[in-house]
Description:
By secondary structure, the chain is mainly alpha-helical. It has helices spanning 2-20, 34-44, 48-71, 84-99, 106-130, 145-154, 156-184. It is globular and about 55 Å long. The relative contact order is 0.16.
Amino acid sequence: MKQNRTNIIVFLVLIVVGALYRVWDNRPLGFAPQIAMALFAGSVIKNKKIAFLFPLLSMFFSDALYQVLYSQGLTPISGFYKGQWVNYILFACITLIGFRINSAKVMQIFAGSLAGVAFFFIASNFLVWMGGGLDINNLPYPKTVSGLMTCFAAGIPFLKGSLMATFLFSSVLFGGYHLFSRWSLKPVRQ
C-alpha cells in the first residue's frame, strides 16, 4: 500500500514539474526537467515498467497541455512537433541510467545526472546530424566528421542549459523524495 501511495505521489510530482517549467519565459536553451525526471523515476520506482511509463506520461501530459495552450494562441510554443518521438525514446533510455542510481547516495545522483546529460547530448545531436537536421543557415549538416562536429558545437548552448536543469531538478526531486521518505517513515509517537 505504501509503495502505491509513493508511486501516485511521484507520478503527480513528475506531471507538475513536467508542465510548470515551461511557464518560465526566456529560460536558457535546453533547460528542462526531463532528464532528471527519467533518472528519478528509474531510481525510486520499484516497478521497472512503471519507472519507464511515469516520466513518459508526464512528458505527454505536459506536451498535450502546451498543445492546447498553443492552439488557443496563449503560447508560441507548440506541444507536439515532428520527430518528438525520438526524444521520448531517448528519455526512456535515460531511465535505464536511473536504475543504477541509489537515491540515497549524492555522488551516484551527481554521476547519473552527468551521464544522463552526456548521453542525451551525444545521442540527440548525432540523430539530428544523421536525420538531416538544419544548421544556423537552414542548411543540412554535411554527412562528414566536420559536419558532425559542427552539429555538436551548435548544441553546446543546449548542453549548458541541460546541465543546469538536470542538477537543479535532480536536487529538487531526489532531495524532496529523501525528505518525504524521512518524514513519512518517521515513527508516530503516542
